[in-house]
Design a protein that fits this description.
Elements lengths: L1 H17 L2 H28 L4 E2 L15 H10 L11 H4 E10 L3 E12 L3 E4 L1 H11 L4 E9 L4 E10 L2 H7 L17 E8 L27 E6 L3 H6 L8 E12 L7 E4 L13 E3 L5 E8 L2 H4 L4 E5 H12 L11 H23 L1
Helix pairs in contact: 1-10, 2-3, 3-10
Length: about 375
């Protein structure tokens, strides 16, 4: 089945490339400088690092949908010149609870996760396995999806959000399990960007959101045992007692126990020792270094037998930066600004036919 999926995706990608020849010119113009800079950074950092523990990679290919879409490249180019400054220092101020519901004719699925403001214009970062609900809605898979952004202590409905970006490679690799009640994975490319588009009560949106600073530089092996702060909306009680349980934002000081790579000798994932944040629902929460910069995003549970109860794993911001650069031609910081509504619409136009095709092919 994977061979059929790969073949189908390849044909679809070639077709989109053929109909978007202008994008190739834009990509060629932008690509070399970005690729050269990133390659030089990687070579210098890898030369100084020892080999990390290895996690399995499922990635077979990277769909070139966004590199070959002229409208997306133009919108991203504008975004690269429009970046805002951080506006928060306390992770509790910047985190949100994302509660999604997917209703079909015969079932109702819900999920809860954490996200955090990474740009003061209202851009949120969270996990792809949370944002997938918005993709399922766009794909019109015989159901209706809704995600509500909740804030405060306890969490209460505040905003609605739209999908700004989710890695096409993640969608491709997880098409056969998008409908699983409990998605599993190593965290590879498990990230997404949303943007707040309205309030639930119809009031005006804030002009500035509480966004955290971030550091997307490569982590060295010397980061082991470094002190970090993790934050999220752990939801263990919600899963056992039902939707009426209040969700409380929590943060905890802990430390990094191990760094992992998906085979490239770069730190793509790190594990953190157990804390009160370590429970279902904290996925998508930020992990900050001692300087107060986000260096990772919680993606999966850790190994409690090694790191204690409530251990977690987080994908690094350097992994997110590198992979979004591979898929779009623009790094993380450059992917946060511009006309968010326009960029979201273009992404949906690009991704929806791709998603529908691979979902149908995966059945």
């Amino acid at each position: 089945m994977s061979f059929i999926t790969d073949t189908f995706v390849a044909i679809l990608t070639v077709y989109i490339a053929f109909t978007n020849t202008l994008a190739l010119q834009i990509t060629n113009w932008l690509g070399p400088a970005a690729d050269t800079t990133d390659a030089a950074m990687v070579e210098d950092a890898v030369a100084e690092q020892s080999v990390f523990a290895t996690l399995p990679s499922r990635l077979r290919s990277i769909p070139e949908l966004l590199q070959n879409n002229a409208a997306y490249q133009q919108a991203a180019l504008i975004a690269a010149t429009d970046q805002s400054e951080p506006t928060a220092t306390d992770p509790i101020d910047a985190i949100v609870n994302i509660f999604c519901t997917f209703r079909s004719a015969d079932s109702i699925r819900t999920t809860t996760g954490t996200g955090f403001f990474i740009d003061a214009d209202g851009v949120l970062m969270t996990n792809a396995h949370v944002a997938q609900f918005l993709l399922l809605a766009d794909a019109d898979q015989s159901g209706n999806a809704e995600c509500i952004v909740r804030t405060g202590n306890p969490a209460s409905p505040k905003y609605t959000a739209s999908l700004l970006y989710i890695p096409p490679a993640w969608v491709q690799e997880n098409a056969s399990v998008l409908n699983d009640a409990v998605p599993m994975g190593t965290g590879e490319r498990d990230y997404a960007l949303l943007y707040v588009d309205a309030t639930v009560d119809g009031t005006l949106l804030p002009t500035v959101f509480p966004a955290l600073p971030f550091d997307s530089e490569l982590l060295s092996n010397q980061t082991k045992d470094a002190t970090v702060t993790a934050a999220g909306y752990p939801a263990g009680a919600l899963l056992t007692q039902g939707a009426r349980v209040d969700l409380i934002p929590l943060s905890a000081v802990t430390s990094i126990s191990e760094l992992y790579t998906f085979g490239s000798n770069r730190a793509d994932v790190f594990s953190i020792r157990g804390s009160i944040v370590g429970a279902e629902g904290s996925s998508g929460g930020p992990v900050l270094n001692a300087a107060g910069d986000v260096i990772g995003m919680i993606s999966t549970r850790g190994d409690d037998t090694i790191d204690g109860a409530g251990s977690l794993r987080a994908i690094t911001l350097s992994h997110i930066h590198r992979t979004i650069l591979e898929e779009t031609g623009f790094g993380l910081a450059e992917s946060l600004g511009g006309d968010l509504t326009l960029r979201s619409a273009i992404f949906a136009d690009t991704m929806t036919p791709f998603l529908v095709a691979i979902l149908e092919n995966a059945e």
